[in-house]
Amino acid sequence: MTNPPAVPDPWPAPTAADPIEATVTLPGSKSLTNRALVLAALADRPSVVRRALRSRDTLLMAQALTALGAAVDTSGDDWAVTPLDGSVPGDRAAVDCGLAGTVMRFVPPVAGLVNGSVDFDGDPHMRTRPIGEVLGALTALGVDLGDEASGAAVGLPFTVRGTGSVPGGTVVIDASASSQFVSALLLAGARFDAGVDIRHDGKPIPSLPHIEMTIAMLRDRGVAVDDADANRWAVAPGPIRGIDQEIEPDLSNAAPFLALAAVSGGSVVVRDWPASTTQAGDALRDLLARMGCRVERVTEGLRVTGPAGGHRSLVGLEADLHDVGELAPAVAALCALASSPSHLTGIAHIRGHETDRLAALAKELGSLGAGVEEHPDGLTIRPAPLRGGIFHTYADHRMAHAGVIVGAAVPGVLIENVGTTSKTFPDFAGFWSALF
Ligand SMILES: O=C(O)C1=C[C@@H](OP(=O)(O)O)[C@@H](O)[C@H](O)C1
Ligand SMILES: C=C(OP(=O)(O)O)C(=O)O
């Protein structure tokens, strides 16, 4: 893999002098790639993950599964995966979770299924992201977390002492902080001796489309999942079939590109937009239409055309983003550029994402002049003239996306650490600049 050229820090976000007309082919979905890798590592035969996303989160996942004894060939666009062989090479392994929620939540249940100790840690901020419910559940399901010195582990760093099998069974968790808690247990659950039967007890679970994605991918591989009752999921014990899967483009990462059509009054086509999908990013079709964009399927993919006059003609949005919280930073940036007020609700949980996104959006959009009020579970955003300035990202790829959207409309926006976009997008700055 060739490294993208170095970009200055802070990085001057390009501003659209004219309506942008572009057709883009976006890299693969992070959520689909990392699920496909985990399932391939647990499968009964080799798999291929076609058009895999090559980014920090997915390479960390490939490294983690390799450390546990799988083989992942990441040399091309299609990644061949040889399943785990039952033992951690060298009996002890270290897993770097970086800032990837999917690595921190999805890999520990897998570590229980191999023989050997696995030490988990990650970026400094990762130590604050929630995981305690998954660790508590794993203990209840018979996994040894080996934390006799400190009592029950509640976050990074922690160690899983795998024995090669997990008894499994019934477990109750509170997944109101992250849908990934449920996905984590479901992904590995078929390989537990008794499978897994998960009940959620707590406030509503966010990001439900991501649980649907997990279930659909398990069923594609022959795993029986019972999701007939709300807040309960049961996976029968049995093999996970190794398959070839082509990864869809990342529809959440389509947000800044479609937003570029919206703010510039231009037209952007995202190639290969799936006809049906479990990706949360598909909600952009509805959200952008409600803000005044024309959204249509065309032969090549999905076309969004911004209103004549660009962002000054966008209307504000009343939206509950509970199911699609990862879209909130890009949507908030569009709302800051719109001509009427917006209320974004249902997203308390995004305070536990790569950074406290509600606080970060209020601060950074506010520092450029936007009228942003922060609530416990959302944001109110009122139209106000915006100005240039530094936009801090807090190591959050989606904060960088928010910053470039504002920068497309407002001259003089400087993105601090735009390189943080490498979490889910290779050379985002180069790709974005090429559109202006
Ligand atoms: O399972 C997944 O792939 C994801 C689930 C969601 O997490 P939360 O449920 O923590 O919001 C989403 O925001 C994240 O970007 C990816
Ligand atoms: C919340 C996100 O990521 P993670 O998978 O690290 O939770 C995100 O990408 O918006």
Automatic annotation (TrEMBL):
GO MF, any single term: 3-phosphoshikimate 1-carboxyvinyltransferase activity
EC number: 2.5.1.19
Binding residue positions for phosphoenolpyruvate: 30, 101, 129, 180, 357, 398, 423
Pathway: Metabolic intermediate biosynthesis; chorismate biosynthesis; chorismate from D-erythrose 4-phosphate and phosphoenolpyruvate: step 6/7
Catalytic activity: 3-phosphoshikimate + phosphoenolpyruvate = 5-O-(1-carboxyvinyl)-3-phosphoshikimate + phosphate
Enolpyruvate transferase domain ranges (all copies): 16-429
Subcellular location: Cytoplasm
Key words of the record: Amino-acid biosynthesis, Aromatic amino acid biosynthesis, Cytoplasm, Transferase
Positions annotated as active site in the UniProt record: 326 (proton acceptor)
PANTHER family on file: AROM/DEHYDROQUINATE SYNTHASE, PENTAFUNCTIONAL AROM POLYPEPTIDE
Family, as annotated: Belongs to the EPSP synthase family.
Role noted for this protein: Catalyzes the transfer of the enolpyruvyl moiety of phosphoenolpyruvate (PEP) to the 5-hydroxyl of shikimate-3-phosphate (S3P) to produce enolpyruvyl shikimate-3-phosphate and inorganic phosphate.
Quaternary structure and partners: Monomer.
Protein name: 3-phosphoshikimate 1-carboxyvinyltransferase
